[in-house]
Amino acid sequence: MERIKLFFDCDTGIDDALALGYLLAGKEKVDLVGIGSVCGNIDAASGARNSLDLLNLAGFTFTPVAEGERDYSHAAYHCVSQHIHGQNGIGDIRLTPAPRAIESQTAAEMLISLARQYPGELHVLATGPLTNIAKALQLAPELPELIARLTIMGGAALVPGNRTPVAEANIAGDPQAAAAVFRAFNNIVMVPLDVTLSHKLTEEHRLQLLNSGKPFAHALGAMLEIYIDFYEKTYGTRACAIHDPAAAYFAIEGLNHCLAPKVKVVVDDTQGPGRGQTICDMRGMYKGYPVQQDANCQVVLKTDIDLASVLMDKLMTL
Amino acid sequence: MERIKLFFDCDTGIDDALALGYLLAGKEKVDLVGIGSVCGNIDAASGARNSLDLLNLAGFTFTPVAEGERDYSHAAYHCVSQHIHGQNGIGDIRLTPAPRAIESQTAAEMLISLARQYPGELHVLATGPLTNIAKALQLAPELPELIARLTIMGGAALVPGNRTPVAEANIAGDPQAAAAVFRAFNNIVMVPLDVTLSHKLTEEHRLQLLNSGKPFAHALGAMLEIYIDFYEKTYGTRACAIHDPAAAYFAIEGLNHCLAPKVKVVVDDTQGPGRGQTICDMRGMYKGYPVQQDANCQVVLKTDIDLASVLMDKLMTL
Q1: Residue B34 CB burial class (10 angstroms; 0-12, 13-18, ≥19)
Q2: N or C terminus: which one in chain A shows less Cβ crowding within 10 Å?
Q3: Fold of B4-315
């Protein structure tokens, strides 16, 4: 089987680190051809460093990392996630600095050059705000035709948001960028809170990682402490959501064993109370989601897969 | 047990007619002190006539009916529901004109005078756009303190809308009015599509009504034909939603046997893609909906009650 060529755009971030671990552990299926950073969980420069240092920790010293947009498309970046991801984005653990340098091109430029290098083959996984993808679209409007599929962790379809009552944090970070992306692409897979908040890593999982004796897994176990501290307020138990690794899973494994109707999705980029909402046309739900002519996005609503087990199996190998 | 004093604000409307039947059949519990009409399913003048003629058909010749707002608070009325409710709002069946006249006061004026007549006692059930309620609020800003409870059929919390992907038709009809009502009242019960679309009257129920030998029930059975024609497109089977009668049920019986968290609800009255959405803060769903300080509305998400059976039992007596 040929490996999937993947560009990973992320804001690393504790759950981005989990997703990265999942991708690295699946190297027989994934050819990680590049990583971009974007402002979101952490500033773009720190996110790029985090990715590079995590790659180094796992022994992947040849994967190029590009720094992406430092500000959102229509607003200056301001970090609001310290209580979730720590001051440095990865739960304030210290990693050995990687010897490799950050690339000189931007994340958007790297994405475009990879898309042109592998036309129709490149998969894109975006687990942060969609600022880099929107920027790349501006620079290369033909991008949607060059990309095999764009998988996004973000949005909420039939469950509440996590930044506002209706907006999920990645989309809420840069609603204008997200709106532009959903207008331009028709081959999107959206992995929203509907599925990511219904799958959890528990404190037990965290301790398994921490005590695994494996360097990458140990680092994940250490950084998950603050993340679980935060999610305990959501769930009332010591566990955290599986956001970004869920998106990584579906990007690689596809959508078997999922309820994932293809529907029209638009993003609310007004200044109103719905700002940042992914408005998904789910009106067909009462009769099995008939085909929508203008559908642009497969929305993963639920899955039979035990994402926590699948993820743990992979991470414990690192 | 004392009967509930109820003002019923509606846009009659096939399911408004069902709700009216439910209220009339429950006269041992409900003192229907007045009915207002509002533009929505049909124009306000026709809606008032429909209510009056239906009352007459059921032998209720003393219930006053007031005509309400002919236009929405910020837009001219234009009927878009002929394919759902027929040209005359009640499935194009003909009723004997009631001898009683429409009141000279408006629906908003009637609501205010009833609220002052029964301070703290009056229950309001609104099954159309909230134009009259917003108008009454303008005329009497103390209205929320005078009203025991405002029960609304409208909105959508964790399911799609029916007018747009996120907006339900009553709220979408006059988002500005709805926004004003949700800002001013903190004793709202909202009966949204979450519950009303998950309860159905079937073609079998319709035939029971049609063949009941009872005049009001027969009329309902006749008018339900076009309504079921419409809802067949939603469900894929010959059945229709139980919108307005569900709200009537909860207005009278209260919220036992319901999942109905009290949360903050705001209405999107922007011109954006979320216009008309009831934005319900359901973020507490993962740990049993903890108390929200600024909550203004109990949102009925689901119920164990078999609403179709309860409704049929009542309607078959008329």
Answers
A1: buried
A2: N
A3: Inosine-uridine Nucleoside N-ribohydrolase; Chain A (3.90.245)
